[in-house]
Amino acid sequence: MVRFELSEPKSLSEACSLLAEYREKAKIIAGGQGLLPLLNHRQIAPNYLVNIKGLPDLEYIVSDGNGHVRIGALTTHRAIEFSPLIKKRYPLLAKMEQVLGCVQTRNWGTIVGNLCAASPTSDPAPVLIALEAIVRVKSVRGERQIPLNEFFTDYLKTALDPDEIVVEIQIPQLPPHTGAAYHKECIRATDSPIASVAVSVTLVEGLGTVGAARIALQAVGPTPLRAREAEEMLIGKKVQHILVDEVAEVAAKKACPISDVYGSAEYKREMVKVAARGALIQAIKRAHVA
Amino acid sequence: MLMLRVNGEDYNVFTEPWKTLVRVLRDDLGLTGVKEGCNTGSCGACTVLIDGKAVKSCLVLASQTKGKEILTIEGLGKNGLHPLQQAFVERFAIQCGFCTPGMILAAKGLLDENPNPTMEDVKLGLSGNLCRCTGYVKIVEAVLVAAEMIRKGA
Known about the structure:
The structure holds 2 protein chains of 2 kinds.
Chain A: E1 5-7, H1 12-22, E2 26-29, H2 35-40, E3 48-51, E4 61-63, E5 69-72, H3 77-82, H4 84-89, H5 91-98, H6 103-108, H7 111-117, H8 124-130, E6 134-139, E7 142-147, E8 152-154, E9 157-158, E10 165-171, E11 178-185, E12 195-204, E13 209-218, E14 225-226, H9 228-234, H10 244-253, H11 265-289
Parallel strand pairs in A: 1-3, 2-3
Antiparallel strand pairs in A: 4-5, 5-10, 6-7, 6-10, 8-9, 11-12, 12-13, 13-14
Helix pairs in contact in A: 9-10, 10-11
Chain B: E1 2-6, E2 9-13, H1 21-28, E3 47-50, E4 53-56, E5 69-71, H2 83-90, H3 100-113, H4 119-125, H5 137-151
Parallel strand pairs in B: 1-5
Antiparallel strand pairs in B: 1-2, 3-4, 3-5
């Protein structure tokens, strides 16, 4: 285990001051479900850990006046899994949480922590990208918003500066007749994905035509990958003219998997097609009843 | 110095900030029922209950558990075996026993939240706990049997 100094700020602004002082020498710890395995096995060695788990007013799931849903930084996976508001507004998020990790991880770990760890196999990342979510970020220098689409910059790296902390996820209201799905190919139900795909589809013109589409591939590159060419194949297309296999094929071309213990690169590319196909069909079906 | 509440008792522990809960429970409190199987949160042998919820104690800093109620396997069965312990014994859900404390606590966390689980619920609820010996069939059976015993007032 790495030895570090543990700071226990009493407020968010105190935490920001500490981060401004320590910068790259510090890591923020909330649930620590991503951080502790790395510390236990000495894969990272921060001098300081800034413990935010006890900070007040950061654990919430609320709907604001604009119809956005806001999730506080200390909200656990389990809270999202069981939240009536999430089940009503974004049931896909609750479904995704049901197959994330295991109960123990979900009880203690936070969804924001998962995003900040920027693992290429993170389940929330592609789902929140498909839902066009953003994160609100604070530092002593002020506040800014980062769309999740731009949040993941490289393997295990985010767009955050060393003195910044994510305080909230904001998910915008979905347009009417929007359906979303997340298909995860894995060996056991709650494993890391071999490949996974999140799709969001909005139907217009009496549910006959695709007005908008987002396809996010996960576990097949250093970051989540938007399959934009595949999205463009869908936009403006009449639903009955969509060739799902072709769209899935084009989406899979975007993948750049590595061969590892989860499978060969060729196998993962095939699994992307399977997941993309399944998620696309399910998203369209859900859009019809949304 | 850390004040912890474990199995209903308060303890004052002098320990370093980088100590995980599993190390403090085992080394400082002598509660060796909680096992350190992998230290990556993959095996679940270190599972304890924190405020009634199953958590992997190798992935928790001890200092983050101030003011929380921790339950280890030693906290169960103080006045006779808990139905889960009874069912595990009767159904041969124990071979080497290494995974057993974590399994039973994960199962208790499950049954406290869902007293009438289906087999699928049990499998999903225990998906964080590995067993190299039994093949899981007897474990799932034992949890379902214990659930019935508890529902009947055991």
